[in-house]
Amino acid sequence: MLEVVKNIFKIEELRNRIIFTLAMLVVFRLGAHIPVPGIDSSALSEFFKANSKGLLGNIDMFSGGAFRNMTIFALGIIPYISASIIMQLLTAVFPYFERLSKEGDAGRKKITQYTRYGTILLSVIQGFGIAATLESAGLSGNRLVLAGIDSWAFKLSTVITLTAGTAFVMWMGEQMSERGVGNGVSLIIFAGIVVGLPTASIQSIALFQTGELTIFILLMIAVIALVVIGAVIFVETANRKIPIQYARRQQGNRVFGGQFTHLPLKINSANVIPPIFASSILMFPATITSFTNVEWIQRVGNSLVPGRFFYNVLFVMMIFFFCFFYTAIQYNPVKIAEEIKRGGGFIPGIRPGNKTAVYLNNVLQRLTFGGAIYLSAVCVLPSVLITYFNVPFYFGGTALLIVVGVAIDTNAQIESFLLNQNYDGFIKKSKKRKKRF
Asked: What angle do CA 387, 396, 232 make, to 5 degrees?
């Protein structure tokens, strides 16, 4: 392990990328401690202690505690994720955006620009909703906003501050993806989730000392955690290998083809996208209910709090929908079958062309269904642990999927850097071993 770390810092480009990524994460954590002007910190702390579970706790988890302290990064990267969801849907529905997605780098830059505009718009809407909620919320008559501050001045300053913070976090994520290691947006969410682990551990120990958590429950939680983490790693790295054989063809005195390879299809090809999309969409009703005091709208918003039965049902349905939707965007069985046929390949026992496309579609449907069940089980797990075992933190769900997925992707990218730098060395070692034998 120490040798691997030494090799990482021997490669100048990889070393600079890691240092840049860590520096951006430090800036993100510093911004998570700069409060929004006009907030009563003590009243806000009491308010979150009484409402730490449910929707507020879910949002706070993604922001790395910034939402709990109502800092400039309180919205985090959530508006950017929501804007990306909308652009994905528009690309699948409207021909204009579909053409942009097929125009190469120019089209992708245009879509990225639209996503940024959408992020700013959603930040303004959500920021106004948070400002209105802060003015109306409180415990025992304690106001969360300092006395003497004009209502519209507070709303305007809060919207500008939160929007600017989200824009800066979005810029950091893009810079980390371009000049750092791994996906910048995922790493920001990863950092926000991981930073809450020490606090969750301290809370668990405190509950054990007071007798609210027994040693049996703690051991059960530990076993469940190990089993779930192992299962997530197994499923995220597993794939179904479709065998493909290429026929031999002769050109002059040379014979080409005759190879036997495989097409890997992941069990969870949509990765962590479906639960992120689903949870982001279900956060909208909470934002909308902050604009009105209509009773039936408030009831609908309260029923869509994380952990409630109706919320879990909608959450699972949306996960299934986005699993099949995102897999359909990523994989086109007809196109894959045409490429295999064009290259002179075929799946043993399956005729090339339309039969191959039907076979691949059936395999993808079964894999996607299994992946959707797996994602739903992991994402509903936090509600079960909190409701029946009184766990004081969110374990499982989108957070666990993001942490494991980001760790695997970042590790794979670092390994690719190491392999590229030491490729000649591996070849030389293999030649020496052959000579010895």
From this structure: 140
Hey, is 246 helix, strand or coil? strand
Q: Using CA atoms, how far apart are residues 98 and 111, in angstroms rounded to an integer?
A: 10
CB 228 within 8 A of CB 256: no
342/347 Cα distance (integer angstroms): 13
> What SS3 class is residue 319?
helix
Structure tokens at 96: 């204009």
Residue 148 DSSP SS3: coil
Give the DSSP H or E segment for 63: helix 55-63
Question: Cα(371)–Cα(265) distance, rounded to whole angstroms?
Answer: 12
Cα distance between residue 9 and residue 95, in whole Å: 47
Q: What's the burial of 275, exposed, middle or buried (CB within 10 Å: 0-12/13-18/19+)? A: buried
By CB atoms closer than 10 A (0-12, 13-18, 19+), residue 250 is exposed
Complete DSSP assignment for 178-237: HHSSS-HHHHHHHHHHHTTHHHHHHHHHHHHHHTSS-HHHHHHHHHHHHHHHHHHHHHHH
Which region among 49-63, 68-82, 275-289, 351-365 has the lowest average model confidence (pLDDT)?
A: 49-63
More confident residue, 26 or 422: 26
Chain segment 74-84, per-residue pLDDT in tens: 888 888 888 88
Written as six digits, the tokens of 101 are 């997605």
Q: Is the pLDDT of residue 261 over 80?
A: yes
Helix ranges, 283-396 (H): 284-289, 295-303, 309-330, 333-342, 354-389
Convert the pLDDT of each residue in 217-246 to its tens digit.
778 777 877 888 888 888 888 888 888 887
Q: How many residues does the chain have?
A: 437
Give kind and range of the element (H or E) at residue 260: strand 260-266
Q: Please tell me whether the overall predicted TM-score, pTM, comes out greater than 0.90 for this model.
A: no
Number of Cα atoms under 13 Å in the Cβ half of residue 146: 10
Domains in the chain with CATH codes: 12-195 (1.10.3370.10), 216-437 (1.10.3370.10)
User: Are 248 and 257 a contacting pair, CB within 8 Å?
Assistant: yes
> What is the rounded distance in angstroms from the CA atom of residue 56 to the CA atom of residue 311?
14
pLDDT of residue 231: 85
Whole-Å CA distances, 103 to 84, 110, 111: 18, 10, 11
Let me know if 38 is exposed, middle or buried by CB neighbors in 10 A (0-12, 13-18, 19+).
buried
Cβ proximity of 331 and 340 under 8 Å: no
| CA–CA gap between residue 89 and residue 184 (Å, rounded) | 22
What's the pLDDT score for residue 428? 42
Determine what percent of the chain is predicted with pLDDT higher than 70. Answer: 80
Q: Span 43-65, mean pLDDT?
A: 67
